[in-house]
Amino acid sequence: AVRASCNILVAGAKGVGKTTLLRCLLNEVPADERIITIEDSLELGIERYADLHPDVESIEARPPNSEGRGEFTLADGVYEALRMKGRVVVGETRGPEVVPMLKALSSGDDGSLSTIHAMSSANVFQRLKMYVRMAPDPFPVDVAAEMIAEAIHFVVFLSWDQSTPPRRRVQSVREVVGVDGHHVVTNEVWAPDALGRAVPHARLTDGAERRLARAGFDLALRDRAEGWWRR
Q1: Is residue 171 over pLDDT 90?
Q2: Is omega for the bond preceding 165 within 30 degrees of 0, making it cis?
């Protein structure tokens, strides 16, 4: 999905490994592509790996000074990134910056990524709509749903599984397929098994399969016997 320039949100609770997975996904970005990161504090550190990421622009938010001046918010950083060419990476989406982020994701420069706190892969879309309503100029719910459906291709949800000891796992992967009124319509293409580990659940849409196949994904994997993904 990264190589196919899909827009991806990595979701889950605090401490479940969202930033770690985001770094792993960024390592799949071709070295000749520019990456623009926007963070509250610089944590990703991908500029340290010049062979993998030779063209990185890092934007950091800052709080106001003692006189209440000089604040530079995540939203400001995303608007700044909109002026640049490249993959936009928002370290964590948790407020009004979601509006410029959705604009960035749907601007044509696909392949952007972000993380978000959520209780499930389905809960991500309620959170996004809530953050849109927190913006200074909020959009109606149906417009927010259209913006989300246009901007996001996949949501990857992480959680702790039920094994002993528990392990961080990908639990769910959702493909965004459209919008119905104020609801974002999705397919859970990988869903949790009894232990909370993601297993194939539903087929991708034809358009997504073609897009991934052009980037090198072997569609024949979907038709193998159950359990191939664990080997």
Answers
A1: yes
A2: yes
CB 34 within 8 A of CB 55: yes
Separation CA 55–CA 158 (nearest Å) = 29
CA atoms within 13 A on the CB side of 19: 15
Between CA 187 and CA 62 the distance in angstroms is: 38
Pairing of strands 168-180, 35-39: unpaired
| pLDDT recorded at residue 109 | 58
| Single pTM value for the model | 0.90
What is the rounded CA–CA span in Å between residue 197 and residue 224? 18
Residue 132 to residue 75: CA distance in whole angstroms: 12
pLDDT band of residue 108 (cuts 50, 70, 90) is low
Q: 7: Cβ–Cβ under 8 A, 6 or more apart, which residues?
A: 105, 110, 111, 112, 113, 151, 152, 153, 154
Q: What is the pLDDT of residues 18-36, one digit of tens each?
A: 999 999 999 999 999 999 9
